[in-house]
Amino acid sequence: QQQSSIIRRKMMSPMSRPDGPGEQGTLNMPPVVARIQNQTEDHKTPICVLMVGMAGSGKTTLMAQLQESTYPDEDEEVEEGAGDEEKEESQAEKTEKDATDSNVEDKGAKQSEGENDGKSKAAESQTPALSPAGTKQPAYCVNLDPATLDVPYDVSIDIRDTVDYKQVMQQHNLGPNGAIMTSLNLYATKFDQVIGILESRADKNTMAEYLLVDTPGQIEAFTWSASGQILTEGFASTFPTVMVFVVDTVRCASSPNTFMSNMLYACSIHYRTRLPLVIAFNKSDVVSHEFALEWMKDYDAFQEALDNARSNDSTGSTGFYDSLTRSLSLVLDEFYRQFSKNACGVSAVTGDGISDFWQIIQNAATADFEEYLEDIKYRIEEQEAKKKAISRAEVRRMQQDMQGGE
């Protein structure tokens, strides 16, 4: 708890409180507020995309597809360069120089971190940096899954470079899930260094437009752990952050009960993090996601699907489970309708729906993230009001003690 409070204090910066006349206080708002206010067309703040999903949903494969979609189109580059060869050569020299300078700065940052603590290091990939003209570059990827053996995307910062998952299991006599949570706890103690690297690249305009973060497949180890909350708040306090919940469309199509379970989990993630939530129905190349969007928007359509599933169930396993699913669909109907505006179908294999996915991310990072900042401001003001009330009560108690002594 002490480490968590220290990390949170490092990630908060003071800003002037918009109080009325006579108020001299300051409101500690996250740095992301100033970053959003100061962004320009040539220097936009990166958008952080936190990818969460059940094991087998295709989350990591979707990460690779998303990063691949952000690579510059080679055909467009050739067409643009054919008209002006000298300009292309000059631009290539600038890009190469910026990339070299960026790699040198990243290496220097790592060396200084190694001197402070030999256990903490973050491996940065040598992706091309943004040139002054705003050359597009691939998404910046961060891996927070310590148990994965290999990742299909170009990772820039990897938890495996800092924490050895197998040694954690051996030294602490832990199982797989316990080792993942312990690895996240250890990484959270040095996460301010990761945030420092990301802030440095963003301030120098060498950060990609999107920051993709891959999380463990054991979804509860990240979404419901203290370390997961610290990491999530660390990203959200630095960059506009969107939570993406990846759903296996094939499994939802096979059973309305599975669909309801995924929607219930989406609600819990939303209320746990309070961040804008985007639901990505993956594997749309196998089964279309249109049925899921219809179930989210139309209560009667989902009830009809439940009736069909019960009539086709040869085992006759209805009763309490069927009644519970119907009750949840009725109670949470309004929430599903809100989620449907930020829901889309994607395919991690073919890349279908990726353009719609990025458009939804942009909308969520602008409009929906403002609600998150308003909630943060309200909570901070509420905490400060409680502190002032406690201080006033202590002053009154001290005055009463002094009067009683006299």
Please give a structural write-up.
The protein has 406 residues and is α/β, with parallel strands linked by helices. It has 17 helices and 9 strands. Helix 6 packs across helix 7 and helix 7 (176-188) packs across helix 10.
Features:
406 residues; disordered N terminus; 17 helices
Topology pattern, helix = H, strand = E: HEEHEHHHEEHHHEHHEHHEHHHHEH
Q: What is the residue-mean pLDDT, rounded to a whole number?
A: 78
Q: What overall geometry do the principal axes of the alpha carbons give?
A: globular
Number of strands: 9
β-strand amount:
5-15%
Q: What does the largest sheet look like?
A: 7 strands, parallel
| Number of contiguous helices | 17
Give the class from helix and strand content and strand pairing.
Answer: alpha/beta
Poorly predicted ranges: 1-25, 76-90, 92-97, 99-135
Strand order of the largest sheet: 5-4-6-3-7-8-9
Rg calc: 24 Å
Termini separation comes to 42 Å
Helix content: 55-70%
Summary, kept brief:
The protein is 58% helix and 11% strand.
Walk me through the topology:
Layout (H helix, E strand, L loop, with lengths): L1 H9 L2 E4 L9 E4 L1 H8 L8 E7 L5 H11 L4 H9 L2 H32 L23 E4 L13 E2 L6 H8 L3 H13 L2 H13 L6 E5 L4 H5 L2 H11 L4 E8 H6 L1 H18 L3 E6 L7 H8 L1 H13 L8 H12 L1 H8 L2 E3 L8 H52 L1
Parallel strand pairs: 3-6, 3-7, 4-5, 4-6, 7-8, 8-9
Antiparallel strand pairs: 1-2
